[in-house]
Write a structure and sequence with these properties.
This protein is an alpha+beta fold. It contains twelve helices and 13 strands. It starts with a strand and ends with a helix. One of its GO terms (molecular function) is FAD binding.
């Protein structure tokens, strides 16, 4: 383990543990004066907005088991494992992800500028709670792996959105049976200007229609900006098993507006975000009918 001393009066000390147990022990010793850090892009943004810097930073970048992408098994099910320290750029360019999970690759292409993707990690985007790739991972039924100081545990991403117990996010799993294959997918980020700006609304989904235009499978998610990402389970239940029609799409539009818990900010109202999200999702699903 290496400690890098502070070079400026107000600069934090940076620690470099090389395994999860050491990182966890450091956080216990340093308590509230320390924060974990991966790529550091989110924390840098917070500092620029005036957030106080912690006295100690525990860098996770030397922990090998939190890096890379590979196919494997978890809970007896085949899938793809993405280490939480894998950069967004590496995820986007990885052959297995580009081929088998194009939805995730598309989402990452729309996150931040290239320089940020080269440094920012997939785990950091999730851990921040408002990352633009979270809707895509919700649509993929992703599972997260956490280290709690004694063991590694798995939790569905959907179950982690409203809770945080201080555990270290180590990996993201996408089950093989959720790789999109013959399903249709979509991802759309509406920003203020370029793709690398914070979004107003981000939507994502996965849908499968049979030959009779009945919706056999669907996952819908939305978020963006100051609105936490969320699965639209009620909208999914409304349309799953039903034949796609204009009436169904109208009902879906209203259901999304009712269900999407958007937040008003200094630029846009919650109602505007609800309407935009509903319009974008309905438009994408209508397009699948040909």
């Amino acid at each position: 383990m290496i400690k890098q001393g502070a070079t400026m009066l107000n600069s934090p000390a940076v620690w470099f543990p090389d395994n999860l147990a050491a990182a966890w022990q450091l956080k216990k010793q340093l308590g509230g004066e320390a924060s974990f850090i991966a790529g550091g892009t989110l924390m840098q943004t917070q500092w620029q907005k005036g957030t106080d810097c912690p006295r100690h930073l525990i860098s996770l970048e030397q922990i090998k088991e939190m890096q890379g992408c590979e196919r494997g098994n978890f809970n007896g099910e085949a899938g793809i494992r993405i280490g939480a320290l894998t950069t967004l750029a590496a995820c986007k360019d990885h052959p297995s992800l580009s081929k088998n999970i194009p939805l995730l690759a598309e989402a990452i292409r729309n996150v931040a500028a290239l320089a940020v993707r080269n440094r920012g990690t997939i785990g950091g985007n999730i851990a921040g709670g408002f990352g633009d790739i979270i809707p895509a991972l919700l649509a993929l039924d992703a599972t997260l792996s956490f280290y709690d100081g004694g063991k590694t545990k798995l939790k569905r991403l959907l179950d982690c959105l409203s809770e945080s117990d201080g555990s270290i996010l180590t990996a993201i799993y996408v089950p093989e049976n959720k790789e999109l294959g013959g399903k249709s997918y979509f991802y759309k980020k509406l920003g203020y200007r370029e793709a690398f700006t914070p979004s107003i609304v981000t939507i994502s989904g996965c849908c499968q229609l049979n030959e009779q235009k009945e919706i056999e499978y669907i996952r819908l998610a939305a978020g963006g900006g100051t609105t936490p990402p969320q699965r639209l389970a009620g909208a999914e239940r409304l349309v799953e098993g039903s034949k796609l029609s204009n009436e169904l799409l109208k009902s879906l539009f209203q259901k999304i507006k009712d269900e999407f818990n958007a937040a008003t900010d200094m630029f846009t109202t919650a109602d505007y975000k609800k309407t935009v999200a509903a319009n974008m999702i309905v438009s994408k699903i209508a397009g699948f009918a040909g």
